[in-house]
Write a structure and sequence with these properties.
By secondary structure, this protein is mainly beta. It is built from 1 helix and 25 strands. Helix content is about 0%, strand content about 50%.
């Protein structure tokens, strides 16, 4: 296990921290506490943090432009204005299904948004992975239990995802101009040992940085599925990484205290914290989401 310089960005413990992203134009990181319906906003230069109450469970966002974000929530996609936080429904998604909520998501270089849903109690095969493309939502992969690790190769020609209970990371060929599949998913790697595959992000070299839930680490895999590095995280349930900083060399990692009793939390005192790792990464900026 590789020990890199690590600091606490936020010691406000997230019940279920997820969905980190970074706006390089404003040096602002964003992430969610899904279970508590909270959106965190952190100015990295000053380390100042604001917490916004959303009134619903939400898990991810995509930057539309300098004034607006697209928020993925349990009942649909909302346009949020940065100026005042006002949210307007853009498209419903599983709005009539009280069993499910959103989970892992990421924007493809084309502006297409891949969106994962799952059961609120991780009900088997209750969720799916969708694509928001040119203002319409289509189903990519149904019967998903816990969608995670959605990310894309630098050339946009490969997408990755997992259904965490299956312990398999899939690679699927994509049309790089649309972010939509043009072939069937194939097994890239099978996870073994402690923990499970959670959120992932691809760097500029095409390597996949994966949060290993339950194992206190970030694993880095090559595009061929070979594990290259394992970085220690000071919380057992690391949930998702994002590249941050002016040169995108640092790694923001969310975590969670979900399903931990008092004894487990006492043994893992930084559970739910949000961390910054000096990872010496070659990261990539997140693309904006396209609405039409």
């Amino acid at each position: 296990m590789e020990q890199v310089t690590t600091s606490v960005l936020s010691d406000d413990p997230c019940h279920l921290g997820e969905g980190p992203t970074y706006d390089v134009t404003t040096d602002t990181a964003w992430w969610f506490d899904i279970r508590e319906g909270r959106l965190f906003e952190a100015q990295l230069g000053s380390r100042s943090i604001r917490v916004h109450s959303l009134g619903r469970m939400a898990s991810a966002l995509g930057r539309i432009d300098a004034e607006r974000q697209l928020i993925v929530a349990e009942d649909g996609l909302y346009i949020r204005k940065l100026a005042d936080g006002a949210m307007t429904l853009f498209l419903p998604l599983e709005a009539g299904n009280t069993v499910t909520r959103s989970n892992d998501c990421r924007v493809h270089q084309s502006g297409t948004f891949w969106i994962g849903t799952m059961g609120k109690k991780a009900e088997p095969k209750a969720g799916a992975i969708y694509a928001l493309h040119r203002g319409k939502i289509s189903t990519l992969f149904p019967d998903i239990s816990i969608p995670n690790s959605i990310c894309f190769s630098p050339d946009g020609a490969t997408g990755y995802f997992t259904d965490t209970p299956r312990a398999v990371l899939y690679a699927v060929p994509l049309n790089p101009d649309t972010g939509l599949p043009r072939g069937e998913p194939e097994v890239l790697l099978r996870h073994t040992g402690i923990g499970g595959l959670d959120g992932s992000v691809c760097d500029a070299d095409g390597n996949i940085w994966n949060a290993c839930w339950g194992a206190s680490r970030i694993d880095v895999y090559s595009p061929q599925g070979e594990r290259l590095r394992s970085l220690s995280v000071p919380a057992r349930q690391a949930s998702c990484p994002a590249f941050v900083g002016s040169d995108l060399s640092r790694l923001l990692v969310t975590s969670a205290w979900q399903d931990m009793d008092a004894t487990a939390r006492a043994a893992d005192p930084q559970a739910g914290y949000t961390f910054l790792l000096e990872a010496s990464a070659r990261g990539r900026a997140e693309p904006d989401v396209t609405l039409a």
